[in-house]
Structures
1.
Amino acid sequence: MNHIVTVQDAVTAFADFMEPTDAELDAIEQEMPVILADVELLDAQIVTLDRTPTELDARRIRRARRRALATRVALINRTHESMPGGAA
């Protein structure tokens, strides 16, 4: 008889003890603006995949890229402000 071990691994991979911790959920929540800005940038880029971008498309991509960069900077600044000791 052949035992299929991968089936057991797939079933136990979603056990209750594998849920994200509160700290992990908080980290995801803090990064959510960056994730949403990246999704917006990808949406703007996907629209132009099968055609030549118009001026409006190019503007939308530039605006989405700036927003994504700004949200990353804001997240980094918040992270450094909340760190004890700070940089000397």
Note: The helical segments are 5-12, 22-47, 55-82.
2.
Amino acid sequence: MILITGATGLTGSALVRAFGRRGRTARALVRDPAKGRAVRDAAGLSTVRADLLVPDTLAPALDGVETVVLISSADDRMVEAQGNLIDAAVEAGVRHIVKVSGLGADPDSPFRFGRCHAQVEQHLGAAHVSATVLRPSQFMQVYYRELPTMLADGTFAQPLGDTRLAPVDVEDVAEIAFAAATGPAPEGAATAVHTLTGPQALSMTEVCAILTEIVGRPIRYVDLTSEEKHRRLVAGGIPPRFADDLDDLFRLRREGGPESRVDIAAFERFGIRPTTFARFAQRSAAVFRGETTPDRLWASGWLAPEAHTPGDC
């Protein structure tokens, strides 16, 4: 049995879809029964109600589980939540934990969640359990956040100058997480670490050129100051502390951080073809044109069948 935590978030729901497409058994951990019903209806997976921040709820969720895919929200209590799950999993006799981390996880990272992921990875490394750590780059789906201004005035505004980034499709991350969870675990208590980026490093001007072709009207990159981006984020409802975190992340990216370097070795290792940004944008054309929402696109069974066939993993 495989347990998926964070099953209703962006990455977790992509992984749930990967299991559902194959009719593969798994158990999804959820806090909200209504969301649990949605998971059962969408993918046919069993669900269990538990909370990573309430350790007493975890033992029943882990009963009979051999592998856990560990995903949870990037928030102020992420380290505590994921640490609770790791401890409970070891106590329950789980053999393999697949941790979805972040590229640039480092105790000295200027980005708060880079430090948080590093803390969880250290906890996992000391837990004497077989582990696989996936460190994805920026998700391509993050660019959906720019839809309001793209649709309003045709601009794509970021404080990134001429920085190049190699974003990864979250569906690809789910495919690799599926392959890692269902395949052989690292020997003994070893930890295997995999970097996941897209196959190209693109400037924001190049991203806009692709979106222009997909949308059918000009999309223009606007290089903002960090202060203006911060103001826009807070005005859009982002909590000030999280906006501060994004300031640190944008600064790291402008300095040529790890997300600027292409690394597709994990795709080659698991036999999965990475999705280009152009292919992602083409699949998401209805979203970028304002004709539908990401949620409706996923609910309709949106996939890239030629990129994710059962033989790929």
Note: Confidence is low (pLDDT under 50) at residues 302-313.
3.
Amino acid sequence: MHTPDRYRLTFTHTGSGGEAATDEVVVERTTSLGPGGNPVYCDPTGILRAEISGAGQVRMLASGGYQAPLPPSAEPLP
């Protein structure tokens, strides 16, 4: 099975006017594995870290204190 090198993560949240808003960020695979044994992906800043399974399930990993990130949707990129 091919493991993608990059994913686009899309986060959906409530905007200032109460409507749904989205933010997107591209993450790249690292050499690390997450607690579930799947590859860990990271944004260029190193702050956003996610374990992504082969089925596209995302587990956000806290990179600092007081973080409670919600899981985004994930789209593999070429």
Note: The chain is about 0% helix and 50% strand.
